[in-house]
Design goal:
The chain is built from three helices and seven strands. The protein is α+β, with helices and mostly antiparallel strands and about 130 residues long. A seven-stranded antiparallel β-sheet has the order 2-1-5-6-7-4-3. The longest helix has 13 residues. The chain starts with 5 loop residues before the first helix and ends in a 12-residue tail after the last strand. This is Pyridoxamine 5'-phosphate oxidase-related FMN-binding protein.
């Protein structure tokens, strides 16, 4: 796996809602806004599954996902791609559930969507648009 740089980690911390993109095994895309997220470490992103339906179904069929970091307070724009899995039990799921419930105990916490970062691309317009960063 690859590790996010300090600048990318800072961008992640400054992003409140991010779009999460997945696709079915047939390539039907889905994108959904995610707000219950946590950067577990420089190569692992946690997103709590509270209401995911198409996203969870897509990951079961096609374990790839993509997000981008861009917006107010973010320097640059990063498209992050990774290998994804959905957990509904186990140590990581319980740790994440506790972490997110500290902020909002009313969340259903049906599962934990885990993305292991595999690639990061530049997504700002210009000569380097689409350039692989790591």
């Amino acid at each position: 796996m690859v590790k996010l740089s300090e600048e990318m980690i800072e961008a992640f911390k400054n992003t409140k809602v991010l779009p999460l993109s997945t696709a079915s095994k047939d390539g039907v895309p889905n994108v959904a806004p995610m707000a219950t997220l946590h950067l577990k470490d420089s190569e692992t992103i946690w997103i709590l599954d509270n209401f995911m339906q198409k996203t969870a179904a897509n990951v079961a069929e096609n374990p790839k996902a993509s997000i981008y970091l861009y917006g107010d307070g973010v320097k640059g724009c990063y498209q992050i791609k990774g290998d994804a899995e959905m957990l509904t039990s186990g140590e990581a799921y319980e740790e994440a559930k506790k972490l997110f419930h500290e902020k909002n105990p009313n969340l259903p916490a049906k599962g934990l969507f885990v993305i292991k970062v595999t690639e990061v691309f530049e997504c700002m317009p210009g000569a380097d648009a689409g350039k692989k960063l790591i």
